[in-house]
Design a protein that fits this description.
By secondary structure, the chain is an alpha/beta fold. 40% of the residues lie in helices and 12% in strands.
Length: 359
């Protein structure tokens, strides 16, 4: 089945993060993630059981090794299509972790690039909220697919996706250069696992091409082949445990309060940000602030425009904590009571409702 499938927690507007599984060539939103004869070992569902406050999703899309089996969009077109699907399902308002097998990792890198470059504020929020990507045998510089296609019995016309996956394809090199250059700017955690067991004598994605070339990121070799690496058999498996801990760490980080304001460029601050008398005494209001700022992401700029926050003061906002700094600016300037009105003006009624809820 194509499209973004809800595995668990996707309907909860207060979920604390989203984990999205993205399959690869000839994959499936469900079959990719469990052993062939064990549909009960569908590990995205395990994640939902262990982390019920997290939304778990699995993306399905047409990507066949053979032109006779199905049509495959070019990678760039598929990325644009998936971005629209993510937006329709409300992805981009909570921290995101992508778990990708093979071609799925290339698709995620491409959609992040589109989201960052196209100027669409909704898509930019997806990039801003992406905290980590787990790559399972993703061929960052291409793969030796001729032998692989022969092995799976599809020596027919290659689809566009297969052609784009060929080893040393210039578009893949350029895409990976972009990712390597921006991964630090986006604050992304990159986790890489690679296969060490061949299929019919072939390592489809060897350790070299599985390595995205990011400083400090070491591909972890697994005693698995290209098909089995994305199919953990129990909750005790290494990959499942790593993904679970990664999500737990990201959720914990997102719940931390903003750090103290930076002392740099103090001269540019026209007014110190002190709590105002209009701040409600209700202790639950602090959680409202955390939730609202966590979900505001890149819309903070539009909100800052609405309240006419001077550019010189915006320049002093700590990188990565801009929504919190907008809140504090409104608080210091006696405008916090107008926040709900401003949120509705920029079409963030979902956040305005947080302020309207009785506490």
């Amino acid at each position: 089945m194509d499209g973004l499938q809800k595995i668990s927690g996707g309907d909860d507007p207060d979920r604390v993060a989203d984990v999205i599984f993205v399959h690869g060539l000839d994959g499936d939103a469900r079959a990719t993630w469990h052993p062939k004869d064990r549909p009960d070992a569908f590990w995205p569902a395990w994640l939902g059981e262990d982390l019920p406050a997290v939304g778990v999703w699995s993306l399905g899309y047409a990507v066949s090794a053979s032109a006779w089996k199905g049509h495959a969009m070019p990678l760039a077109d598929r990325a644009t299509n998936v971005l629209d699907q993510l937006d329709l399902d409300g992805i981009g308002r909570q921290p995101i972790v992508f778990v990708c097998h093979s071609l799925g990792g290339l698709l995620v890198k491409q959609l992040l690039r589109h989201a960052a470059d196209f100027g669409n504020p909704v898509w930019k929020a997806i990039t801003a909220q992406t905290r980590a990507i787990v790559f399972l045998s993703t061929p960052h510089s291409g793969a030796d697919l001729a032998s692989w296609i022969k092995h799976i019995g599809t020596l027919l016309r290659a689809t566009v996706s297969v052609e784009e996956l060929e080893a040393h394809h210039p578009r893949l090199r350029e895409l990976n250069l972009w990712y390597r250059h921006h991964v630090a700017d986006f604050g992304l955690t990159t986790v890489v696992y690679c296969e060490k067991r061949p299929i019919a004598g072939l390592l489809v994605v060897n350790e070299t091409t599985a390595d995205p070339g990011i400083g400090g990121v070491i591909p972890i070799p697994m005693d698995e082949d290209h098909v089995s690496i994305c199919k953990p058999t129990s909750k005790d498996s290494q990959i499942y445990r790593r993904v679970k801990r990664l999500v737990e760490d990201i959720v914990a980080q997102s719940r931390q309060p903003a750090p103290p304001r930076s002392t740099r460029n103090k001269a540019a601050d026209s007014q110190p940000l002190q709590p105002s008398a209009e701040t409600p005494a209700d202790p639950d209001f602090g959680q409202v602030k955390i939730d609202l700022c966590r979900r505001l992401v890149t819309d903070w700029q539009t909100l800052a425009d609405y309240f006419e926050i001077p550019p010189a003061e915006r320049a002093c906002f700590d990188k990565g904590w801009e929504p919190q700094r907008v809140w504090e600016w409104l608080e210091a300037h006696g405008k916090l009571a107008q926040l709900a009105e401003g949120l509705r003006y920029i079409n963030r009624d979902d956040l305005a409702e947080l302020l309207d809820r009785p506490r």
